[in-house]
Amino acid sequence: MAVGGNLKDHTRVLTTAIVTETSRGENGNAMALGIILLALAFAVNLVLTFAQQRSGHS
Hints:
Strand content: under 5%
Mean pLDDT: 86
Number of helices: 2
Structural class: mainly alpha
Number of strands: 0
Number of domains: 1
Low-confidence stretches: none
Radius of gyration: 16 Å
Shape: elongated
């Protein structure tokens, strides 16, 4: 399954971390990471929507 990049012991993208935690059986940690990912997505969407409305575009 291709879900993101990872440099061994250096980086891990959030989607890879979720898959790793799930494969380890750490479903609680995977759910927490998923909630963080959703919150980040909603926050970015909110900021961009606000910026777009402020600039006068609809």
